[in-house]
Amino acid sequence: MDKLIITAAICGAEVTKEHNEAVPYTVEEIAREARLAYEAGASIIHLHVREDDGTPTQSAKRFRECMEAIKACCGDVIVQPSTGGAVGMSNDERLEPITLLPEMATLDCGTCNFGGDDIFVNTENTIIEFAQRMKPLGIKPEVEVFDKGMIDMAIRLAKKGIIPTPMHFNLVMGVNGGISGTPRDLLFMVESLPAGSTFTVSGVGRCQLAMNTMSILLGGHVRVGFEDNVNLAKGVKAKSNADFVTRIREIAFTLGRETATPSEARAILGLK
Ligand code: KMH
Ligand code: ZN
To answer: Contact 7/48 with Cβ under 8 angstroms?
Structure first.
C-alpha cells in the first residue's frame, strides 16, 4: 500500500466559531491552523477562506493572502483550494481561486441536499465548465462525491476526456443529503471506483473516525479537520485541526501505514 496522505480541511465554509472557537477565520488564524496540521503530519491543506467576521468568500485576493501565509510557514505542503465554496455562490465566484494556479482544486461532481433548505448545486454543465477551466491550467481535480451517482458522473465525463485520468476521488460520507457514513456504504463507494483511481475518505461528524480508519485499511487516504467535524469525541471539542491529524496518524502507524510527506503525496497523486 502507498503511504497515507493526510488532508487537513482546516476551515470549511459552514462551520463557525459557535461550533468550535478554534475554527479559523483571519489570515493569521488560517495560517496557524495550517501550520499546526502540517507539523502534525498533513501533506495537503484543503482550503476555504473567510472574511475576518467568518463570512465565507471565494475572493482570489483573500485566497492569495492565505496561500502565501500558508506557504511561508508550511514548507512544501500542497494547498488545495475549494471550488465548492459555500452553498449559494455563483460559479464565477467559486472558480476564483483557480486563477492562482494551485496544484490541485476540488471538482464537485453532483448536486446534493445540504441540510434544511440548502442545496449544493453542481449541474452536469457546471461540472463540465469547472473541469474544462482547470484542465488547461494543469490543475489536478480532486473529484468530490457525496453519493454513488456522482462517481458514475465522473466516470462518464472521464470517458469523454473532460476529466483527466487517473482520477483522485474524495468520498465524502455522511452529509445530510448524501450517502451515509457506514462501513457498508463506504465499501460500496470504493468498489464503484474505476481501476487506477486513488481516493481519500472524509466523514462528516461522528462517522469521521470510523470512515477514516476504514480507508486506511482499504488502501485509501484520509481527510480530517474542522470542515467535517469539530469534536474529538462526544462533548470533547478539538483544540486544533492538529488534534485530528495526530490521532489519525497514530492509528495509521498502528495499522502499518506510514504517513506521506508532501513530496511523497505529489508522487502518489501524479502532481508535477
Ligand atoms: N461547502 C460545501 C458547500 C468543496 O470544497 O469542493 C462544498 C464543499 C466542497 O466544501
Ligand atoms: Zn470543502
So the answer is: no
